[in-house]
Write a structure and sequence with these properties.
Radius of gyration: 27 Å
Distance between the termini: 9 Å
CATH topology of the largest domain: Rossmann fold
CATH superfamily of the largest domain: P-loop containing nucleotide triphosphate hydrolases
Low-confidence stretches: 1-35, 291-295
CATH class of the largest domain: Alpha Beta
Bound molecules: adenosine-5'-diphosphate, ligand L45E5XJ5
Strand content: 15-25%
Number of helices: 17
Shape: globular
Number of strands: 20
Length: 531
Amino acid sequence: MSAQVNDALLPETQTARPTLSRSATLLTARDVLLQAKKNTVLKSHGRPPWYGEDGARISDAFVIGIAGGSASGKTHVARQIVQSLGSIPTVIILSQDSFYKQHTPEEIELAFASRFDFDHPDAIDMPLFASCLADLKACRQSNIPIYSFTEHQRLEETKYLYGATIIIAEGIMALHDPALRALYDLKIFVQCDSDLMLARRIRRDVKERGRSVYGILEQYLRYVKPSYDNFVLPTSRYANIIVPGSDNAVAIDIISTHIRRQLDERATRFRQRMADAGPLDLIPKDRKPDPDKEYLNVTLLPQTPQLKGIFTVLRDLATHRGEFVFFADRLATMLMEKATEFLPYRPRAVITPVEEEYHGQELDAESVCGVSILRSGGPLERGLRRVMNDIAIGSMLIQSDAATGEPLLLHLQLPVSIRQRYLAENTWVFLFDAQIGTGAAAFMAIRVLLDHGVQQDHIIFVTFLVARAGGIAVLQRAFPRVRIVCGAVDNGLREMWLEGVEEGEGQSGTEGRKVWVVEPGMGHIGDRYYL
Ligand SMILES: Nc1ncnc2c1ncn2[C@@H]1O[C@H](COP(=O)(O)OP(=O)(O)O)[C@@H](O)[C@H]1O
Ligand SMILES: Nc1ccn([C@@H]2O[C@H](COP(=O)(O)O)[C@@H](O)[C@H]2O)c(=O)n1
C-alpha cells in the first residue's frame, strides 16, 4: 500500500485544493538538482536522526545565507551547492523573495509602472523572514508566504516547510539584517559585475517575470543600482566567503566540502544504541504498574483467552493472508477501542426517545487525527476508521539506511491540524506502527510530532506488539508522557542480515540490509498484510 492520502489532508500550499503527491519518492542527486526549486524540501537519501537518546535536539539545521545583487547568481550558487553535495540529506533553498511585504492597491499600481522601490530593505518583512528561518533552523515547521512577481503581491496561500538538514537562505538583503545574520552558520556573498547582472536581469525578467525591457531599465536606474551600491554591496563585509558570479566551480567545491565535514561531525549511531538499550521491566508480571517507575506509560490489552487466540492466528506462519488481514483488523479495532479511552471527555446531557434526560459524556478534544508510520502502521488505520468517523490520517515514511541501519525520514504527509503550529498544540494524535522493536522509527515519529508543536501527552502510540528487549525503555525515558497502547509484549529482539534479492525478469532487485526482528513476533506485519 502506498501512503494513504486522506481528503482531509491539504497539500503543501494550503488554501486551494490541489494535486497531492501520492508517492513517497526517493530522488537521485540529479533529480534533486533538476527539481532544485526555491522553497521546497529537496530530499535524496532521507533525514537521519537530529536528536539524542534523551529526545532533545542534538543539532540545528545547518544554515547558509547567500547575498548579492539581483541576478548576480545567488540561486545558481545555491543549486550548485546542492548538486555538489551529491548524496545530500534534505535541503531547503529559502528565498527572501517570499518575504516581500503585502502591498496596497496603490503600491501595486506603482509597481506596474516600475515606480515602486522593491530594493529598499524596508520592502522586506525582515522579522517574518527571521522567525521563519529560526523555526526551520530549530527543526520546527514553518508556513511561509508565497510571493508573485507577476502580480507584485503576496498570495493568500502559504507553503508548509519542515525537516531540512541544510537550509540555504538567499536574497539581495540576506546579510543585511543582524537578526538574520545571527542565524547563519556560513555567510556567502556573490560578487558580480554590474553589466553582467543587468544583462542577466533583462533576460530573466522578460522571460520569467513578464516585464518589458523599458520597465526593467527604468526600475534598474531608479532603484536597483542605487540600492545595490548603498545597501547590498556593503553587506559583503559580513561574508565568510566571496563567490564570483561566474566561473565559480572552485568556490562551490570548497563550500560543499566544508558543509559535508560539518554534517559528518554530527552523524550519530542512533538505532544501534536503541537496540543495545537492554530489557526493561516494562510490564510487571502481576501487571500492576510500579508507581516508582516514571517511564511506565504502557497500556497492555487484558491478556484474555480471546486475545491470545487472535495472536495465535497472527503469529502462525501457516496463516494465509485473508485470515491474517481479518484478525489484524479485529485486533486493530480492539486496540483503538482501548486507545480512545485516553482521549479527554466531558459531561453531556441528552433527551432520550422516551423524553428522559440522560447524563453522558462526549469527546472534549478540539482535533483528533491519525498518523501511520509506513507501511507497517497501515493496518491500524482500519481500526481507527472503525471507531472514529471522518478522521484525517497522515503518514510518515521512515526506513532504515541499508548500510547503517539508521532510521531515515523519507516522506511526510501530515494532516492540516498538525502542519499549523497553533492547531498542532491542541491536536490529539494516534500514531501507528505495527510493532516497536528497536524503537528507532517510533522515536523519530514522536520527535517529528513534537517538532510541530503536538503536546507529548496528546500522543497515543498504538501498536500490535512491543519488544521488551528493544529500545522501548529509551523511548519511554525520553518521552514519558507519550502513552503506548499495545496488544502483546515479546521478550526477544534479534539483529539479522536480510539478504538482498537479485534483479529478475520484470522484478526489480533489492539490496541486503541489517534488520532487527521481534521474537517470537509476528514476522513482517506489513508484508503479511499487504503482499
Ligand atoms: N555562474 C553562472 N554562469 C552562467 N549563468 C549564470 C551563472 N549564475 C547565474 N546565471 C544566470 O543568471 C540568471 C540569474 O541568476 P540567478 O541565480 O537567478 O540570480 P539571483 O538569484 O542572484 O537573482 C539566471 O538566468 C542564471 O541562469
Ligand atoms: N514585485 C517585485 C519584487 C521584486 N522585484 C525585484 O526583484 C529583485 C530581487 O530578486 P532577485 O531574484 O533578482 O534577487 C529586486 O532587485 C527587485 O527589484 C521586482 O522586480 N518586482
